[in-house]
Amino acid sequence: MSDSYSILFQPTMLGKLELKNRLVLSPMGCLIDTDGKVSERYISMLEERAKGGAGMIIPEAFMTVPNPGYFQHNIYNDSCIPSLSLLTERIHSHGAKICCQMGPGEGRIGKIIPGEPIPVAPSAIPAHADPSVICRPLTIEEIHEREDAYFTCGKRVIAAGFDAVEVHAHAGYLIDQFMSSEWNHRTDEYGGSLENRMRFPVNIIKNLRKAVGPDVPILYRMAGDHKRKNGRTIEETIQIVKILMDAGIDALDINAGCYGESFYWMFPPSYLGDACMLDIARTVKQATGITILNSGNHTPETAAAAVSAGDADFIMMGRPLLADPDLPNKLRSGHREQIRPCLRCNERCVNEGLFKVKSISCAVNPRVGHEKDYVITKAETPKNIAIIGSGPAGLEAARVSALRGHTVTVYEKEGQIGGNAAVASTPEFKTIKGLLAWYQLQMEDLGVKVVLNKEITPDSPELAEADQIFAALGAHSWAPSIQGLDSDIRVDICDAHLHPELVKGEQIVICGGGLSGTDYALEIAGQGKHPVIIEMLPRIAGDTCFVNQVVIHEKIQAYQIDVKTGYRVKELTDHSVIAEDADGNALEIPADTIVTAFGLRGNRPLAVQIRERYPDTILLGDCDKVSTIASAIKDGFLRAMTLA
Fold first, then answer.
1. Do 545 and 346 contact (CB within 8 A), yes or no?
2. What are the residues facing 509 on neighbouring strands?
3. What pLDDT score was predicted for residue 355?
4. Exposure string over 476-490, b if 16+ CB within 10 A, otherwise e
5. I need a surface site. Which of 366, 374, 518, 621 has the fewest CB within 10 A?
6. For position 35, what pLDDT does the model report?
7. How far apart are CA 235 and CA 239, in angstroms?
8. pLDDT in tens, 38-61
9. What's the rounded Cα separation, in Å, for the pair 184 and 27?
10. 508 to each of 148, 293, 429, 505, 513, how far by Cα in Å?
11. pLDDT grade, residue 283 (50/70/90)?
């Protein structure tokens, strides 16, 4: 084990509970189960992270009271105990501990379901999903019922074998609403002063302590900064933490953001950088001395640095342990370079997994949520496989094929692997470069032959020698038929990324405001240039998930990037771009360099020609359908997995 990370693997006390290391799986909404019970599929997903070396596992919030429309596990009756006992037993079998996160409901951020009661909250406040719906204030009796539920549920989860418990009080959920003057307008003993607003969580903690006894750690998860107008500040957080410590918590699981305009802090995209919530942890730690668990875009390096500096005691990782469940074991055994990196893209884990009500997945690890279904096994008949193209689809197909025992050769017409992913990897705020480095290492370790600067055609003799061909030819930049495409100052977006010396001057006009053009604008704005984005749609970056869009728009505003939406590019000149809105109003924008980022078109014609010559050819990734890195990797994974 490298000395750089050794501090992460020291057995450490969490209250009176010893964890084998300081790496903890963050609780994440998974939507794997929708009936309130813990399934084998869910257990397998968590178990893989325990097997991979995490010191403690915290599953998603388990509900202490019935909560209509909320697809989470419940612990409000004894029927949960058998499956939870199996879960804890499987986690313990790998030497990890497991903590039960317990929630009393969503409050104002609950779903509005026709025919179901409206959401309840501390006060008569607008519902998050539909502000025209006013939440029903909880009665004193209902508050007491929720407080008492923590006693009975605490008894239940300890009986099921949990080692610790955590109060779910972050992100603007019900307990957070009681704590916050923004949402708590009560005039009784549960509202008004901070002491009164804290009465609900304090009573919950006291009931939990009675239930679990003196030795079981009680954790408390909350946002140290709501990152929004009228939200909680770090100064108030310090007062709150002191009240919580007096009530009997052992540790604070601290993060940032809440549902509303700052919701993206709960799933911080790559644009927020590494260890983006550590400053909150550091401030609270210095002010109170409480044991801190901290999440938020940590890398192994920021994790070790945070613990070494005393800013946090335990580092929580959610998406990184989805991307690579073996992260702790690889780090501990001195193989940092073997860790498959999380892209922080939010495409499969958050956008599809949570907000589109599909079960959780991962852009770079298609096995997430299917650990028992997607097991890579040796092929009965090893084949000689040719893969044309080394984008994410081709690389993943090569990796899986090699693991299955096939002999694999990848042909790439450029001088480096990655395809358009290599183009997109140039901004410092992106983590794609790390993924490509990981794939390069996998190719070497698995004996995959990668032939660079080799363009393949249907007549290439290399194809005749293959038993199976994967055409992963990717996509190319596309431009509409407009005047001036031969302008001396025009540079294609791919060339702009890979050959920055082609981009001259300071005033850079980017034609096309999809994710590619927008990311490029942010990249060069960070270098001091002055980009202008022209986009014909009403919104830029519309081809990425809305979690990321919010952050992108904030970054655009912070850099004061000029954005012209609703304009179609009509002409490029040697000194400007001429665009036109829907009413025919023309706009001429001066430019030192024009970067065209109109989009991509799949290299399907060549792929089809190859398939006509070799009918068993399988088309992969963008050459079949232009999409995301996540889709390309899953396509390569599944087609290689199911190859007979």
1. yes
2. 532, 594
3. 75
4. ebebeebebeebebb
5. 374
6. 85
7. 7
8. 999 999 999 999 999 999 999 999
9. 26
10. 62, 43, 20, 7, 13
11. very high
The residues, ordered by sequence, that sit 6+ positions from 554 with a Cβ below 8 Å of its Cβ are none
- Pairing of the two strands 600-602 and 475-477: antiparallel
Residues 6+ apart with CB under 8 A from 426: 433, 497, 498, 523
Residue with tokens 């009931």: 207
Q: Is the pTM of this model over 0.90?
A: yes
Q: Rounded to an integer, what distance in angstroms lies between the CA atom of residue 214 and that of residue 218? A: 10
Distance separating alpha carbons of residues 605 and 608, to the nearest angstrom? 5
The pairing of beta strand 576-581 with beta strand 567-572: antiparallel
Sign of the Cα pseudo-torsion (107, 172, 109, 157, in order): negative
> Do 293 and 312 form a contact (C-beta atoms < 8 A)?
yes
The Cα 497–Cα 475 span in angstroms is: 16
Tell me which residue has tokens 């780090």.
331
Catalogue the E-assigned strands of 260-343: 291-294, 314-317
Predicted local confidence at residue 113, as pLDDT: 84
Q: For residue 1, what pLDDT is reported?
A: 59
- Cross-strand bridge partners of residue 499: none
Separation between Cα atoms, residue 574 and residue 561, nearest integer Å: 22
* Dist. CA 278–CA 233, nearest whole Å: 15
Say how far apart CA 233 and CA 443 lie, in whole Å: 48
Burial (0-12, 13-18, 19+ Cβ within 10 Å), 217? buried
Would you state the structure tokens that stand for residue 175, as one six-digit string? 């307990």
Task: Work out whether the CA dihedral 115, 116, 121, 126 comes out positive or negative.
Answer: negative
- Checking phi first, is residue 151 left (phi over 0); if not, alpha (psi -120 to 50) or beta? alpha
pLDDT for res 19:
98
- Bridge partners of residue 475, in order along the sequence: 602
pLDDT digits (tens, 9 = 90+) for 66-114: 887 666 799 999 999 999 999 999 999 999 999 999 999 999 998 888 8
What are the structure tokens assigned to 460, written together?
A: 């290439």
Compute the Cα dihedral for 572, 578, 581, 584 and give only its sign.
negative
**Chain centroid, CA 335 distance in Å:** 23
CB 322, CB 360: distance < 8 Å: yes
Nearest alpha carbon to residue 185 among 128, 142, 123: 123
* Cα-based distances in Å from 209 to 15, 154, 155, 205, 523: 13, 8, 10, 6, 50
Cα 203 → chain centroid:
34
Q: How far apart are CA 94 and CA 55, in angstroms?
A: 9
Spatial distance between the Cα atoms of 435 and 508, rounded to a whole number of angstroms: 29
Backbone angles phi, psi at 215, to 5 degrees: -100, -15
CA nearest neighbour of 567 among 559, 556, 552, 578:
578
Helix orientation angle between 278-288 and 234-247, rounded to the nearest 10 degrees: 50
Among candidate residues 502, 577, 573, the one with its CA nearest the CA of residue 536: 577
Nearest to 426 by CA among 355, 541, 503: 503
User: In whole angstroms, how large is the CA radius of gyration of the chain?
Assistant: 27
Interhelix angle 629-641/392-403, nearest 10 degrees? 30
**Catalytic residue numbers, as ranges:** 173
Here the tokens at position 100 are 């039960």
